[in-house]
Write a structure and sequence with these properties.
By secondary structure, this protein is of the alpha+beta class. The chain has 4 domains: 10-17 and 82-173, Alpha-Beta Plaits, CATH 3.30.70.270; 18-79, MutS, DNA mismatch repair protein, domain I; 177-234, 5' to 3' exonuclease, C-terminal subdomain (DNA polymerase, domain 1), CATH 1.10.150; 247-344, DNA polymerase, Y-family, little finger domain (Dna Ligase, domain 1, 2-Layer Sandwich), CATH 3.30.1490.100. The chain contains 14 helices and 12 strands. Strand 5 (102-106) and strand 6 form a beta hairpin. Mg(2+) binds at residues 14, 108.
């Protein structure tokens, strides 16, 4: 292991069932009841589920129809993203009282680097506890946290004592923690990869650690090197407070399949307006527009065009999307259309790195 690894105290804060918890907070009649944020019906998808709903097996990204079968008393609530954004901003404001090194991953989770923090508190565990207490008192929601030497371990740890809990993995505990960890708990190991690892006799971090770098490269491609290092506690990624957005998109799933391009143009008009709104709100523009088409048989197709200039105006977005729609004949009726803008005109800022030796790292108070 390197003797010049970055020494950091990282907290990963993850709100508990965020969207569903906001709905229960704003409407006390929903407290203690199984709710799903998102659409029910034939085409609806669950965006978030309350813990009461999760006991029935309901989870995010699940079809609404299946969720309703699993939980007959499930209450569907229409999402209110403006409200979730408002609450998220209040939570982030609390984070910034402790450090400017905050990297939001989404509305409901973020990394914080508190190695050098505004409170002068040497204990990352106590800082995490204080942050969670303030979120509960000032916002009215519970949060969970993971605390460790890098982003990977902190994220894994934040899921350990959910909801409304936290777990610290001290420097001297890192290797044993990872060795005992079920491979499914490794962030970055999805369902398909986990099944492949099971077939190769890899069930825990210890099993993974016994595989050579060459073996992992040969069997898992580019991800092999990532797995080789993270199981050894090596993950040097910094907390990036100015995390650069790579793309911005909007899409719509239709209640009925569309076969007429006239109706598709009407939908593209609404999607273009939403993309333009998000671009302007983020004060960015993009050069590469991608049209996403999902057919009724669930096959997916994308068509892209890179322009010689940046765009954010709805009319230009719509015209470019229309060109891509008519670029070639559609192979089937369509159930979803989406537009994304990438190659954005935002610049990445570099975060100063904090480095010490491993021997010093082991003396850190967590």
């Amino acid at each position: 292991m390197s003797t010049d690894l970055p020494i950091r105290k990282i907290i990963h804060v993850d709100m508990d069932a965020f969207y569903a918890s906001v709905e229960q907070m704003d409407n006390p009649e929903l407290n203690g009841k199984p709710i799903a944020v998102g659409g029910g019906g034939k085409r609806g998808v669950v965006s978030a589920a309350s813990y009461e709903a999760r006991t029935y097996g309901v989870k995010s990204a699940m079809a609404g129809a299946l969720a309703a079968k699993l939980c007959p008393d499930l209450i569907f609530v229409r999402p209110r993203f403006d409200r979730y954004t408002e609450i998220s901003k209040k939570i982030r404001k609390i984070f910034y009282d402790y450090t400017d090194l905050v990297e939001p991953l989404s509305l409901d989770e973020a990394y914080l680097d508190v190695t050098q923090n505004k409170k002068g508190n040497p204990s990352a565990s106590l800082i995490a506890k204080d942050i969670r207490k303030r979120i509960l008192n000032e916002v009215g929601l519970t949060a969970s946290a993971g605390i460790s030497i890098n982003k990977f371990i902190a994220k894994v740890a934040s899921d350990y004592n959910k909801p409304n809990g936290q777990k610290t993995v001290n420097p001297e505990e890192v290797l044993s923690f990872l060795e005992q960890l079920d491979i499914r708990k490794f962030y970055g190991v999805g369902k398909v990869t986990a099944e492949k690892m099971y077939q190769k006799g890899i069930f825990t971090g210890l099993d993974l650690k016994q595989k050579s770098l060459q073996y992992l490269d040969e069997n898992f491609g580019k991800s092999g090197r990532y797995y080789y290092y993270i199981v050894r506690g090596i993950h040097d990624s910094e907390v990036k407070p100015d995390r650069t957005r790579k793309s911005l998109a909007a899409e719509r799933t239709f209640s009925e399949n569309l076969s007429s391009e006239v109706f598709m143009l009407e939908k593209l008009d609404h999607i273009s307006e939403e993309v333009a709104r998000r671009l302007n709100k983020s004060n960015v523009a993009g050069k590469t527009l991608t049209l996403k088409i999902k057919y009724s048989d669930f096959t997916l197709q994308t068509r892209s065009k890179t322009l010689p200039y940046f765009i954010s105006d709805k009319s230009v977005i719509l015209e470019t999307a229309k060109d891509l729609l008519f670029q070639e004949r559609l192979s089937n009726s369509v159930r979803l259309l989406g537009i994304s803008l990438s190659n954005l005109n935002n610049k990445k800022k570099k975060t100063p790195e904090i480095k010490k030796s491993v021997s010093v790292q082991l003396k850190f108070e967590f």
